Prior knowledge:
Elements: H1 2-16, E1 22-30, H2 35-46, E2 56-64, E3 73-79, H3 81-90, H4 93-103, E4 107-121, E5 130-138, H5 141-154, E6 161-168, E7 175-181, H6 184-189, H7 195-208, E8 212-226
Antiparallel strand pairs: 1-3, 1-4, 2-3, 2-8, 4-6, 5-7, 5-8, 6-7
Amino acid sequence: MKKTIFIFLLVISLSVYSQNILWEQVGLKVNQGTENFVLELVDDFYTSIEKPENVVISLDAVWYRPEGFETTHYLTFAGSAEDLGKLRALRSGSVYDQYNQNFLNFAEITSISSGGTLMRFNVDKGNYPISQMWRFSVEDPVTFANEFVKMIKEFPPEGYLSIGLLSQGSDGDSHYIYTTHKDYATALSWGPKTEGQQNAFMKFQKIVNPISDYLGTITMNNIKTWN
Length: 227
């Protein structure tokens, strides 16, 4: 019953928040000292093709991560299902095969996953360079989403904020919360500051802890984005 309700709410969410997007993400372990070679390869390939107009491609370096987390970079593709499908068709053929072969000389793939946003806030601040992502394994999606909305009403985001689902390639995580910061200082000082914000944050944690497992946080810095 809960799953049925959640699917219904998801449909409503996707219709109300027309700006919701899907994404594909490739986790990378880049060989030390070869970051510039990886950037050059990605830039050369994706500027040589007719990328679908509304697809955004970004390369991010992982700054902070949980112990044992091997991924050092993420290559992310975001847009509509139709546009991502068009991009997928372009990521084929002899030129792409050569790009991929050269790429793997400098990095190994640690993960491939996909998902989509359920709600997005402050979309105009999505280009802030510093980002953080919290990962959860959620048993009760309805309660988790509802409590998230309640918290945001009292603790509004300063940067871009989204909550979303992982649909493929997850490692036990089902949901994520993602936010951006305009600079490093803002990222370091981020958090609930007023009594009302602190209470809202603590209430969210108290209610969702029994119905979810927190799996860690990563902080990333954007290297380059291709719009």
